[in-house]
Design a protein that fits this description.
0% strand, globular, single chain, mainly alpha, 78% helix
């Protein structure tokens, strides 16, 4: 299920017409990093890993829409960030990756 969700995230970013090639490449690299970190987390906490993957997918969908709603994007990204807060000690690379991904998605609308 996690793998399918990550594939959906990649498809969302790949198919987004509102992205430059540079931004798309940056996001796809961050998604690759996220996939690695979520896989590590899923070894000990599959439910949280799936939750983070789903929230990432929702955030990517909101941020990459041609006419995105800034409030909806911000709310979605805040929800994603808060979902990894408890992993700051145990999975610092996951938190860093999610924060970088959130920043990159937030920058799309600027």
């Amino acid at each position: 299920m996690i793998e399918k969700t990550v594939v959906k995230i990649e498809e969302t970013v790949t198919g987004a017409t509102a992205l430059s090639d540079e931004k798309r490449a940056q996001l796809l690299q961050l998604i690759s990093d996220l996939k690695r970190e979520i896989t590590k987390l899923s070894e000990t906490d599959k439910d949280s890993a799936l939750d983070i993957a789903r929230k990432t997918h929702a955030s990517a969908e909101h941020a990459t829409r041609k006419e995105s709603d800034d409030h909806q994007v911000s709310s979605s990204l805040d929800d994603l960030k808060s979902s990894v807060d408890m992993f700051e000690i145990s999975h610092p690379d996951l938190v860093l990756t999610v924060n970088n991904l959130c920043n990159a998605l937030a920058d799309i609308g600027i």
